[in-house]
Amino acid sequence: MPSVEQTLPTGAALRRLRVETGRSVKEVSEALGWSSSKLSRIETSLSRVKPQDLALLLDFYEAPQDLRSCIGALLQHPVPRSRKTGDGVPDVYERYARLEEQATHISMYAAVVVPGLLQTPDYAAVIITNTTPTPEHHLARTRMQRRMLRQAVLGRIPPPRIDVVLDETVLRRPIGDPAIMRRQMIRLQELSDRPEISVRIIPLRAGAHPALTGPFAILDFPEALRIPSHVWLDDLAGGVLRDRQTDVDRYRQSFAALDELSLGVQESAEVFASMVAGAEPNI
């Protein structure tokens, strides 16, 4: 039986098709007589879609023949992924990405760069190029594609609640040229306008705080899925996922402390706007 990793492209393609047709998970599930959890598991590749279910979905979406052929080929001939160390996308990162797709609430603290979920392609490209070892440069494109694919969660219906705290150093560290930084600030400004997303800045003058050990993300899930909350710690080796309750509680307390120390949403948005206009961050 193909692994979950092998079926990822099919689920992602079906999710994109549903979003492009403007339909919700609930609407499609009810029309096909399915539970919402069945469709969600297909789209997040936690369940392999059966050929008859794939046909029902493609008919419902009125998918053109060329698209049907492409998605059918993904199902019949999944691309195997290497299990060797140094693969383009580490297995733990794939597990995190699948969990992220199902989360209803994502809380992120960024200490060094803008979180991948919010990055523009050119900002992400600079980071991936500079953090990929020379022997693995041929894998940079794969990593870039996977990072951008993760951002499909921002278009999910209903969207997850996303709360982000950026350290002031994230804004002061130039990633690429000024044009790249400007486009990234525009992106943060646009995201801040969405009601389900808050992006706030913790100023350097706040001094020491509980998250000085580095960036992290907390993922919370619907009760119906019975998935425990997870904490994601990113690093050069691929990252670490933790779901022990005591660990999650510790990071949740840290995020609450950051929340108290951060600027408000509107004040932070004004900083992004001033940087778009070419000013240095005045915090």
- Kindly state the mean pLDDT as a whole number? 85
How many strand elements?
6
Strand order of the largest sheet: 3-2-1-4-5-6
Percent strand equals 5-15%
How many alpha or pi helices?
A: 12
Low-confidence stretches: 1-8, 78-86
Structural class: alpha/beta
Q: In CATH terms, what is the fold-level topology of the largest domain? A: Endonuclease, Chain A
Order of helices and strands: HHHHHHEHHEHHEEEEHH
Tell me the CATH architecture of the largest domain. 2-Layer Sandwich
- State the name of the first-level CATH class of the largest domain: Alpha Beta
Major sheet description: 6 strands, mixed
Write up this protein.
With 283 residues, this protein is of the alpha/beta class. The protein folds into two domains: 4-76, Orthogonal Bundle (434 Repressor (Amino-terminal Domain)), CATH 1.10.260.40; 91-276, Endonuclease, Chain A (2-Layer Sandwich), CATH 3.30.870. Helix content is 49%, strand content 11%. It has helices spanning 4-20, 25-32, 36-43, 51-60, 65-76, 91-102, 121-131, 140-150, 168-172, 178-192, 245-261, 265-276; strands at 105-110, 161-167, 197-202, 216-220, 230-233, 240-242. The protein has a six-stranded mixed sheet with strand order 3-2-1-4-5-6, with helices on both faces. Strand 5 (230-233) and strand 6 (240-242) form a beta hairpin. The termini are far apart. The model is unreliable at 1-8 and 78-86 (pLDDT under 50).
